[in-house]
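README, section 4: Worked example with a bound small molecule

Sections 1 through 3 covered apo chains. Here we extend the same pipeline to holo records, where the ligand is supplied as SMILES alongside the sequence. The molecule in this example is magnesium ion. Nothing else about the input changes; the structure line simply encodes the ligand pose together with the chain.
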Amino acid sequence: MGRLQALLFDCDGVLVDTERDGHRVAFNEAFAKKDLKVSWSPERYGELLHTAGGKERMRRHFDETGWPVAERDRDGFIKDLHKLKTDLFMALIADGKLPLRPGIARIMREAIDAGVTIAVCSTSNERAVQSIVDVLLGADVAPHVTVFAGDMVKAKKPDPEIYLMAVNRLQLDPAKCLVVEDSHIGLTAADAAGIRCLVTKSSYTEQEDFRAATKVVSELGEGASALELPDLESLLI
Ligand SMILES: [Mg+2]
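The generated complex, written as structure tokens:
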């Protein structure tokens, strides 16, 4: 691989469909543990995602459908439920129950074999990102992946800081790197860092504006239609 020096992956929505397969599932498990008879479908959760923040999302749901507790108990109820949900989310990752998106493990192994540098650049919680890398990518891949996450940078995406940090610390040439993102915000960060970007759309980002992307696909995929390492390298030309 002469031209492709590094692949820089976003985490949430790229390595895993975190919202649909992780956070949504953990909310539903928390509701079940509390006998709440609430279960959010992928469609319902898609509506609730317009509200930022997990606690705020639950408040909105109960505002719309009725609260199971008295008004004075609402704050404590939401706080407890959110703590339980967070623990259940971390357990989903630790137990390997959050599925990797199609083609991720394969493309990483191809990159390792070709001597291409791999990093994960996310402005989400560092513990969750590192855990996703360690547990889901496994012992043969994870040691080859450098993680840049969470509080390492002051400005979150769409600011390019996390990508600039990766390029700087790993001593990469931005023209020889490719970012993989699933959202408009992530694409904007890559673009501002001067790095070409492949978008693999995820459940809740399908309708976003990806006009700045080098290429847009639904997933890296497996089998005949899969994007392989030479296909990614050709995006740099
Ligand atoms: Mg993302």
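What to look for in the output: The pocket of magnesium ion is lined by residues 10, 12-14, 182-183, 186 (CB under 6 Å). The mean pLDDT is 95.

Section 5 describes how to batch many such records.
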